[in-house]
Amino acid sequence: MKYISHMKPMRALFCSLVVGGISLSAPAEAQAVEFGIYEGETCPSGYTPLTIADAFWTFVGRCDALPYSGVFRIAGENSIDGQWNNCQQNADDTRELDSILCKPNYELFDIGETTFAAVRGGGQCLEGFEHVDLATVSAYSAEICTHVGLWGIARIAGGGSIDGPGYGCGFRATDSRELGDSICVEIE
Question: Stretch 77-96: mean pLDDT, rounded?
Fold first, then answer.
């Protein structure tokens, strides 16, 4: 599962088309996303498949950002062709594909000299990181909590959890709920 290519985020081109008096234009939040190409049909921890909209805005006018050959999995049972077929998207593509396009689904942040990661979905830490321990959460709960998400709850080491600001930044040593997000710390 190795990264092959990345694209830096950029604002999408403003596209507008008037057809029969109806204006079709790109939403203000539409933009290309940073992505990687990974072997297999699942993204590594901390990454999520590109959505149909991500793929459209990332490759519109930039089809050369994908390899020439290949068909790549995107979210759901959708796929996108390489340059050989002008980055055509395919809905309901149930074939087993060799590669998937993934975007980062994590946020790195520093407290002092230590790097942390808030990982969305999957309940796992990034490579080179581990779940943050309760003592660290206790010492830095106000700083860490802002990265959990307003109404989020994230897994920490030992089966514990920390709440986001909407829940008052509380934390607990054990939490039997299934949680998808994680707060991790870089392994020294």
Answer: 95
pTM over 0.90: no
d(CA 87, CA 108): 31
> How many C-beta atoms surround the C-beta of residue 107 within 10 A?
13
Residue with tokens 């607990």: 172
Give the integer Cα–Cα distance in Å for 59 and 70.
15
Written as one letter, the residue type at 148 is V
What is the DSSP code (8-state) at residue 23?
E
**Whole-number mean pLDDT of the chain?**
86
Query: What's phi and psi for 64, nearest 5 deg?
Result: -65, -5
The H or E element that residue 136 is part of is helix 134-139
| DSSP output for 61-103 | T-GGGS-SS-EEEETTTEEEE-GGGTT-EESS--S--SEEEEE
What's the pLDDT at 7?
41
- Nearest Cα neighbor of 51 from 65, 67, 30, 23 is 30
Q: How far apart are CA 49 and CA 184, in angstroms?
A: 21
Tens digits of per-residue pLDDT, 140-181?
999 999 999 899 999 999 999 999 999 999 999 999 999 989
- Listed residue (170, 176, 116) closest to 145, CA to CA: 170
- Report how far residue 1's alpha carbon sits from residue 91's, in angstroms, rounded to the nearest whole number: 24
